[in-house]
Write a structure and sequence with these properties.
This protein is mainly α. The chain is built from 14 helices and two strands. The protein has a two-stranded antiparallel sheet. Bound molecules: geranylgeranyl diphosphate. Geranylgeranyl diphosphate binds next to helix 4, helix 8, helix 9 and helix 10.
Amino acid sequence: MKILETLRRKVDSALGNYLPAKGSFPKPIHDAMRYSVMAGGKRLRPILALLTGRMLGVPEPKIMPAACALELVHTYSLIHDDLPAMDNDDLRRGKPTCHKVYGEAIAILAGDALLTYAFQLVTQKIADKKLVPALVEELSVASGSAGMVGGQVLDITAPLLLKQKHSAPNALNLCGKTHLLKTATLITAACRMGAVVAHADKASLARVTDYGQNLGLAFQIVDDILDVIGEKNKLGKTPGKDRQQNKLTYPALKGVRSAETEAVQLITRAKISLKSFGPKAKPLIDLADYIVSRQS
Ligand code: GRG
């Protein structure tokens, strides 16, 4: 999709401008932050914020600091997820992981600093200061223990929980909750932050939330399918690593075909949520179709 490539470039350029300069004091941390953020990535979360804002009539520059803040939080989570204490990955976005290049201590601190810098960006760079509290609330709730961090905890502890209380419905239920917190909450926050900058009314915010949740859940299922069929190998991931680690995933619990069907159903629901916005919703609807058909 051409619009995705155009927005990805704009986000990359904004991130490059916002981040502390390479080599600036204290050098190791600023280099590590820049290394991981600028290592590539689809920039899905910033793009969702920008497209939601655009659908509701807000120009990109007004949302860009919030959009970039989402990417900083996302990158922090990837750096910490790759650490030996968590997934212990050597490659991310096709490059050596942050801790492999800068060591574990600097990688932990780079993640911490990116999380903090995200909130600095929102508070300092969002021009309309009245919007700042609502944006900070969206981002903090989605990132914290009731959101992404909570999802990561479920992801780590789910296999143990299931050993104690094993049954298929339990496993599916837990898997759905994990996906919602680990992945869909930040994706939903991206859409909601775009809507907040647009001063969206309650009804529009509810529709955008519905879109984000369904899209986020589908995104995670597709990610897990790609892991099983090995496409991620191209980006340096070990195919099937989730299975080796006994991670709860839809393809593992229900098979790849059934997981694909589930993802398509979720995408259909996501698209229906935006129907009342008419033709202005087309880029977000196209993005939903792209998510379910993506190969990496
Ligand atoms: C460590 C606090 C903490 C949280 C970690 C995001 C996460 C939670 C773990 C990363 C591993 C993972 C597979 C998470 C699910 C979300 C997901 C599919 C992340 C990958 O996002 P993409 O595909 O990555 O948007 P790029 O590199 O394109 O930005």
